[in-house]
Write a structure and sequence with these properties.
- The protein is an alpha+beta fold.
- The protein is built from 18 helices and 12 strands.
- The protein is elongated and about 105 Å long.
- One of its GO terms (cellular component) is plasma membrane.
- InterPro entries: CBS_dom, CBS_dom_sf, CNNM, FAD-bd_PCMH-like_sf, FAD-bd_PCMH_sub2, Ion_transp-like_CBS, Transptr-assoc_dom.
- Its main location: membrane.
- Pfam families: CBS, CNNM, CorC_HlyC.
Length: 430
């Protein structure tokens, strides 16, 4: 008896080819559903649903079911291709038709179906997935062993576990989603901010000491009471004798309660101060966020390497790094970057270079400065004075005009982008 597949009836060969395509499609369907299903939702369902609990076990070890599905998919494709090549009068056209059917059914149809109904499909195939994971574990283990041998031959790591999508992969997906209209620009920016969250340091988002409203505990109340009521801050740093000596945080709620009891002029501020939460200015904001949550604090006092007060960071500052500016009814509309036209902008001196580069689509970098004001001071090599208005600074193809200076700080700058002339225009001018 011969094992030549050409001796198998044509109808049976076609059935084998169709079945292999269908089985591969089902494998892709199940695998895609398990990859895209909400793990948090399955985890919540697992307490009451036995099937969801089994699915949760599989999802906790994604490498196992992915290797199993990949093995099955390769197996079904190999079988289908084998019978396609064995068809009578087989030529390249049969192979092209087989691949076209395979891609249409397995890639386009089943993947899109799985993405739209991931939860129901993943639950429906849980038992089947578990069965094949158990049955094929020895084969997968053998193949993994062989792969590891080759990796060692090329001095590569063998203990790498799948940990989900990388940042680059997610950003690539977001780009595609934005181009197709499925993801809005705001959503993309928010997710991008989350990736940058653990890279940013506290001093990059702080309100610098020169902009912090604080009161000296030795000053009489009439010196700061009007500002206290006008600015409507809920928490205010309090120093004693000098700015670097922060002794506490004044909660306005506590102050008003005491003022109601004894009058504004008789409030003992020292008695109602809250302990300040000091952190180094170089602390990562993701760590600071969780620390503030644990300590039930809303404001952190930043200290520089010399022990001096450098600024403050609030919970709102940290959250705004992800969701953008949060304005309330007391916030005045700020115009820190005002666009005149494509080549001219009015900018506040305390605008960070990162924000300016993103907003204006330019590329200014400095190892020493975080703000455009500091950047210009670096270029000048000196601290500007209050008579330096309209002073121009040229850097590369940018002209910076210093519009106002206050207390040795650049407050307002005009940026003019000088467009480079094309070679043809240069030749005409010559």
């Amino acid at each position: 008896m011969t094992s030549d597949p050409s001796n198998i009836p044509l109808q049976l060969q076609i059935i084998f080819i169709i079945v292999s395509i269908v089985l591969n499609g089902i494998t892709v369907l199940s695998n895609t559903a398990m990859n895209t299903v909400s793990r948090n939702k399955i985890r919540q369902m697992a307490d009451e649903d036995e099937t969801a609990a089994k699915l949760q076990v599989l999802l906790d070890k994604p490498t196992h079911y992915r290797f199993t599905n990949r093995f099955l998919s390769y197996l079904f494709i190999t079988v289908g291709l084998f019978f396609t090549i064995s068809l009578p009068n087989s030529d390249i056209l049969y192979i092209v038709l087989f691949v076209a059917a395979l891609i249409t059914f397995s890639e386009f149809f089943t993947r899109k179906l799985a993405q739209q109904h991931s939860e129901s499909i993943a639950l429906a195939f849980t038992s089947t997935q578990k069965f094949f994971v158990i049955i094929l574990t020895p084969f997968v283990a053998l193949l993994t062993l062989l792969a590891n041998i080759f990796l060692k031959l090329f001095r590569q790591k063998t203990d790498i576990e799948y940990n989900g999508y990388s940042e680059e992969q997610v950003m690539s997906i977001l780009e595609a989603g934005q181009q197709s209209g499925e993801i809005k620009e705001e959503g993309k920016k928010m997710i991008n901010s989350i990736f940058q969250f653990d890279d940013e340091l506290a001093y990059e988002i702080m309100t610098p000491r020169t902009d912090v409203f604080l009161i000296d505990i030795n000053d009489p109340a009439e010196e700061y009471l009007d500002q206290l009521m006008e600015l409507r801050y809920s928490r205010i740093p309090v120093c004693e004798d000098e700015t670097d000596n922060i002794i506490g945080i004044l909660h306005i709620k506590d102050y008003l309660i005491k003022a109601r009891e004894s009058g504004f002029d008789k409030v003992d501020i020292r008695a109602i101060l809250r302990k300040p939460y000091f952190v180094p200015e170089t602390k990562n904001i993701d760590a600071l966020f969780f620390e503030l949550q644990i300590e039930k604090q809303h404001i952190a006092v930043l200290i520089d390497e010399y022990g001096g007060f450098s600024g403050i960071v609030t919970m709102e500052d940290i959250i705004e790094e992800i969701v953008g500016d949060i304005d309330d009814e007391y916030d005045e509309e700020e115009h820190i970057i005002d666009k005149v036209d494509d080549n001219n902008y009015y900018v506040d001196g305390n605008v960070s270079l990162n924000d300016l580069n993103e907003e204006v689509n330019i590329n200014l970098e400095s190892e020493n400065s975080e703000t455009i004001g500091g950047f210009l001071i670096d270029i000048l090599g000196e601290i500007p004075e209050e008579g330096d208005e309209n002073r121009e600074v040229t850097f590369e193809n940018y002209i910076f005009t210093i519009l106002s200076v206050k207390e040795r700080r650049i407050e307002k700058v005009k940026i003019t982008i000088v467009q480079e002339s094309s070679e043809e225009e240069k030749e005409e001018n010559e």
